[in-house]
Structure formats: C-alpha cells, structure tokens
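Question (not urgent): is this output format expected?
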Amino acid sequence: MSNKIQALHAREILDSRGNPTLEVDCVLESGHMGRSSVPSGASTGYHEAIELRDQDSHRFFGKGVLKCISHVYHDIFPAVKGHKASEQTSLDRLLIDLDGTEKKYRMGANTILAVSLAAARASAHYYKLPLFRYLGGSVQHKLPFPFFNIINGGKHADNRLEFQEFMISPRKEIFGENLRAGAEVYHTLKKILHRHKLSTNVGDEGGFAPNIQSTKEALEFIVEAIESAGYRPGLDVMIGLDVAANEIENTDNLIDQYVELVERYPIIMIEDGCKEDDFDSWHELNSRLGSQIQLIGDDLFVTNKKRLEFGIKRDLANGILIKPNQVGTLTETIETVKMAQENGMKVMFSHRSGETEDTFIADLCVALGVDQIKSGAPARGERIAKYNQLLRIEELLN
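Got this back:
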C-alpha cells in the first residue's frame, strides 16, 4: 500500500491553558497514521501568521476552532487526498496556495500547520523511522542545549516583573545531564523561595511566579539556586532572559540596563530585547552586545524568512527563535532555519505558552542540528514531554 493521503480527521482539544486548539490525524492508504496538535501563544508578534478562531461564537468565549475543522474537511482534504505524504514540499506549497494569503488569513496558520505536521509524522511511520531520522536523514545528529524557564514575569505571571522569562541553561555535553541539572536548580530555587516566604505557584510555562520586585532580585535568587544545587554559575549553568520588549511600556535605557546585567551576571542570551519594529535599537543592541552574548529575535523575525533576510542585511541580531505556528508549514519553518544557519546565526526552537503534549519540535530540533531549545520549566506534562522525547532520542543516538 502507498503513502498517499487517504483521510484527514480533525478535532478540537484543549491546550495547557484550558483553551481549545486543533488536532489533526493524517491517515495513509497503507493504514499508517500521523497526529499533530498546534500550540498557541499569549505574547505574540504582530507579524506572525494568523491563528484562526471562532470569534463570532459564544463557545469558549469565541476561542474555539470549529472554523479550522471545517477548513480541514471542506477545503484541505479534497485538495490533498491522494497526495503522497512524503512529498512534503509540494504538499506544503499546495496548502499555502489553498489559503492564498501571505499571513494565512483565510484558513489560519494553525489549521495548515496541523495538517503539515501530521502528514510528516504519518510518512515517518510509513517508512518505520524515528521522526528525527525521517526529517533529518542519517547524518550525525546532536542534542540541543535546553533553556529552562524557572521564573516567570510579564504576560506569563501575575507579578511585577517586567521581563517575561528568566531561564537557566546547563552546558554539559550530555543532554540527560543538562536535564538533571535544570531540575536540580529548579527544585533548589523552590526551597529558596519558600525560605523567603515567597509564592512557588507556577506560571503558564512552569516557572515560579513569586512577587519579586526587580530583575536583579530575580537574578540573585537564580545565582543562589545554581550555587546551592552544586553548580558553577557561568561555567556549568548560564542564564537567559526573554524580555518580550513588545509588552513593556517604557523601554528607555533598556540597552544600558542589558549591558549592566551582562557585566554582573552569567547571561548567555537575551531574547526580544527591543520592540519588534524598532530596528535602530536592535542594531544598537547587536553592536554593543552581539560579540558577547546571543541576541535572539522572536517577535522581530516570527520564523519568517523575509523578516529574517531583512534582519541579516541590517545586522539586527545574531540569533533567531523558531516557532512553527508563527509561519504555518513545516517547509517554511525548515527554510527559515536553514537561512539562519547558513548566515552563522544561533537557532533556538521554542514551545508556546499554550502548549499540547505534541513533541514534534523536539524531533525537528535534532533533525536540523539546531543549537538550542526552550520548552519551559522542568515541570508540567506538556513541557516535560519535549524534554523526555529528547532523552529518548539521545538514547537512540548512543
């Protein structure tokens, strides 16, 4: 039996925030099936492809995805039935053409992505290959360095911290050891916060959301947790920040603040340090700190090849965050990653704040030889699912 698409099944499921999202099963003539579900972000960039929702419905306060399901059955399936799931590029081009708009206004990037990824997974099953092998071939694969979000602020928490994520990144050679270090620092931080009578409730991505007053206070707690867990800040474990500058009202003197923080703390990465269209500030930031740390563009690039090409020409950043649902298909995601790699940029794959148990990004990260991944804290099932999948891949590679 062939690997041609025989059926698509779409359903509405819940993400980690209790909001509806789309899940699609792709069934091949051979009987093999691939399933994919798409996440949703709280802090989103203006230039991201559109996420389709049932805004004119009272169901789920207008957040349902029945329109997406309708597009899968009435628009996408008639067009892709009989198409080989292994011909990913032509399948994705067909999906893009079916929508016909640059930002996926008609059918939604979430609709298109669910079908695109489900087909890839079905094809991997057809060829009896692990997903990372199917996507990346038999080249020498490496595991990414993880970034664990251990303190939440901004839109991800109900506290006064302006910066959205405070992350740690263990730098051992073995992924399993990095996961262990991340979990040990995370649990140590919990004890320290308890000792200071601060809340250890967690935010959307599993990081703690204590009522901390300042960035420096949060960083001091993290450095203490690294040391108390038996690791060396700046050697064994580094720190990363997701500023999410789009969400900050007053961005005056932010770059000076970053320079001071980098001098004082073992910071290896700053994500979205400037607003998405403030290109002059991005260029200044990259000029001042680009030789010392990673400056990752998320809202700046939104996994969009055209935005990335512009950023490379203007020397705006030295790294990019990759979120497949920002662009809409597997092919577009891979093209953006390869452009970044060919231009010497650091690449980091990322979850979203509204996640599912789908582990596709973990396999894709390894398949493409990407340097880093962030999937939240070493807590909450939808976050741990990605890290545990990377453990399984490491076991296969060894």
